[in-house]
Amino acid sequence: MQLREIAFARSGDKGDTANVGLIAFRPSIYPVLVKEVTSERVKYHFKGICEGEVERFELPNLRALNFLLHRSLGGGGTVSLMLDAQGKTFATALLRMEIDVPDHLLNRAD
Amino acid sequence: MNAQPVAPEALLEEASAAVGLEERPLPARTRRDGGRRVRVASGQGFWGDWQEAPKLQVRRGSIDYLMLDYLAEITMSIMQKQRDRNPDAGYARDFVPLMDDLIHDLLEKEIRVVSNAGGVNPEGCRAELGFAFADESLPRRPRVAVITGDDLMDSLDDLLAAGHELRHMETGEPLSTVRDRVAAANAYLGAEPIIEALRQEADIVVAGRSTDTALTYAPLMHEFSWPDDDWDRLAHGVVAGHINECGCQASGGNSLVDWREIDLTLPGYPIVEAEENGTFVVTKHPGLGGRVTWETVAEQVLYELGDPTEYITPDVIADFSTIRLRDLGRDRVRVDGVAGRSRTDKLKVSIAYHDGFKAVGALTYAWPDAVDKARRADEILRGRLRHLGLEFDEIRTEIVGAGACHGPLAGAPSDDLPEVTLRVGVRSPDRHAVSRFSREIAPLILAGPPTVTGFAGGRPRVQEVVAYWPALIDRGVVEANVQVETMEL
């Protein structure tokens, strides 16, 4: 399934780096995000868009992961020629990722 | 603060929400246990934000402070360009008519304004406010504070000579490599000058490059007399500031969750209702649109976040991985548990420097084969630029409607799209080359692929690129100044 069925996100910029905050809809899903949505996978997902490293930070308190996608915004700020120079649409781009979620977690209500 | 038990008052709130009792926002400055709450309302999240928002914050409910954040990383560069053209400009111009509109209410309700509307010219901003406040019917004369000292332009060479290299925080390059092209250099100031302005009974604080979050936490430090080394309480203030600084983004704007259901016609912007111990509730005025939930606040907490364990401000380092959010229902979200630690001995400096020129042109192609036509037009355009012998640092082509935002992730575009917009941008140190490019878009209308439109805007504008150079400087070399003045008739 697509990540957007189990999580939501918001993205923004710091210079030429895009940040994407990814939040699980339910607490029981958070461990799935930690296991599946690794920085390597995100880097691969954004190939052709993210030219630099991908860093990942965990925020279990918000059942969230924060990704920094370096060298992704065409130079960033006023230098960038990109339509989305501030990385505002990177959030839903990440939510396109295909992910496997165990059935017992999908059906759990928490 | 993490290890401490939950305040009884918070449990009461939680319990009343759980059993569905009406939980109305309490009047400011009163609380069930006789303590005090201070309400800091967010009125602007960027320069150009919705002008009605601050008016609704002032007129549709009770608040103590109105916080107006006008400055993003690129805003200082834009303001600098404006001041280059006109020495009286360089601040958030729409701040003045807004204050003109609100000044009666602000004085009558004793609401104080804390803003960074001054941009690169806070004194110019105050001068204009003087004209706006030339109104004999005001209940009293307003006091306006101007905060300066963030502008390092005049001392830049002395700083560099003294060994402050101002290296780029991402690339590590020293500023000397672009020194002759620097247009502006401003240190991010912290809470201290804002607190001083409030101590001197300013009604309106006009700062320049004050840290966005400080516009919210400085009033809290002032009201509650928090010591400036009470790291946990300051860290709560920083989170409050981070939630407030993007306006409606914390109260339903740009929210992915339930976006169809949230009425954003006349949204209430967020209000932070803080207590002496630092903990706070995010809410909004009842009767307005928007929504404050765990989800809307969590999304904003993550916005533009770097390493969550070190959110660095001039006054404290906050650990966002300790934030606890609890949805109390009825547009109230409680925030507590935030840990902070000692501030660093550096301040961040925002430097703007001239970095060539750019222009972006666009044309729209209609069905059938819209994408193919746009691609062909792009090839033709690039061929003509080569024919002219023009060179650019970058030529970027995007096809809006066919993956301009998500690139390859969007998949191959359908060959049946009703229309797409070809968007081509160029960047070069050579103004002439960029200007020449801007004349090559229109000819594609007659000498290019068919069913083209969308050139009503005319030739693409040549824009000067003023790039951003973030750096750090020793805190000791930056001295903030506060001037509070009663605006006499």
**Which sheet architecture does the biggest sheet of chain A show?**
4 strands, antiparallel
Tally of individual domains of chain A: 1
Task: State the low-pLDDT regions of chain A, or none.
Answer: none
Give the radius of gyration of chain B: 25 Å
State the share of residues found in helices of chain A, binned by percent.
10-25%
Label the structural class of chain A: alpha+beta
Explained architecture:
The complex is a heterodimer of chains A (110) and B (489). Chain A is α+β, with helices and mostly antiparallel strands and 110 residues long. Chain A has a single domain (3-106), classed as Alpha-Beta Plaits, CATH 3.30.70. Helices cover 21% and strands 25% of the residues of chain A. Chain B folds into two domains: 8-150 and 189-344, no CATH class; 354-466, Alpha-Beta Plaits (2-Layer Sandwich), CATH 3.30.70. Helices cover 27% and strands 24% of the residues of chain B. Chain B contains twelve helices and 19 strands. Chain B has helices spanning 8-18, 52-59, 73-85, 95-109, 122-132, 156-161, 192-199, 214-224, 231-244, 294-302, 370-387, 431-438, and strands at residues 37-44, 65-68, 112-115, 143-148, 182-187, 204-207, 271-275, 280-283, 311-312, 317-319, 324-329, 332-336, 339-341, 346-366, 394-400, 419-428, 452-453, 463-474, 481-486. In chain B, the strands form three sheets. Chain B has a ten-stranded mixed sheet with strand order 11-12-8-7-1-2-3-6-4-19, sandwiched between helices. In chain B, α2 packs parallel to α4 and α7 (192-199) packs across α8 (214-224). Classes of the chains: A alpha+beta (110), B alpha+beta (489). Chains A and B meet through β1, β2, β3, β4 and α3 of A and α3, α10, β14, β15 and β16 of B.
